[in-house]
Amino acid sequence: MLAALGLFVLVELVGLLAAPLAALTLGRLPGAGLGFAKVLGLLLATWLIWIAGALGIAPYGTPLIVGVLVLMGVVGVLAGLRLRALAERLEEGGSRRRLARLRRLALPEEPVRRRLFWGAEAVFAVTFALGVLLASFAPDVWNTEKPMDMAFITALN
What we know:
The chain is mainly alpha-helical. 78% of the residues lie in helices and 0% in strands. Helix 3 runs antiparallel to helix 4.
């Protein structure tokens, strides 16, 4: 149970690190793309870790993982600063149409987007809890697709 809670916290952390990047790149979606922050963050982190290890840029291990997460945090801060700069440009003025388009892109903290973000968080938490509950009934690795899961984990390690 403690391992599942640790995984949940890790996924939340990666999602929060990638949230400004998701808001910047997927800002035209209804929720500013913030519901996709976890998926984007996990894909980006695992791809960077894998490519750095595969190309020999850094040896695979905890320092590489922490380094990639720190890099994602720095990129997230830069994306957040870019969103703030866009918001400041909105306040300076501009045409109505361009102003409305930039506002939708630059301000993911609007109330509707905030509700969509928290809705996506709730869906993730409930789905994760149900998955943990389901896995708790058969935690051993000997049935159906579980050997293939272990093959993937072994290949990654």
